[in-house]
Design a protein that fits this description.
single chain; 71 residues; mainly beta; two-stranded antiparallel ribbon; 8% helix; globular
Length: 71
């Protein structure tokens, strides 16, 4: 967030993610459509202003995603 790590500063690794069912930030899904195994993508996402975590609400976060498995 704003160029700084959020939370404990450690990346979330090996997190299962179901496209269209993330329940996280809706716009993440649109960045991952068509991603392939071993592909990496970086993108910015703006949290909604009414996001449940007030610290993140309205903030821009950079995400880095690498697909390690597809099911």
């Amino acid at each position: 967030i704003n160029g700084e790590p959020h939370g404990d500063g450690q990346p979330a690794r090996l997190r299962a993610f179901v496209l269209g069912e993330s329940g996280f930030v809706p716009s993440i899904d649109e960045h991952l459509i068509g991603i392939e195994l071993d592909e990496e993508r970086r993108f910015d996402v703006t949290y909604p202003s009414d996001f449940k975590d007030e610290e993140l609400a309205g903030q821009v976060a950079e995400f880095a995603v690498k697909v390690t498995s597809l099911k």
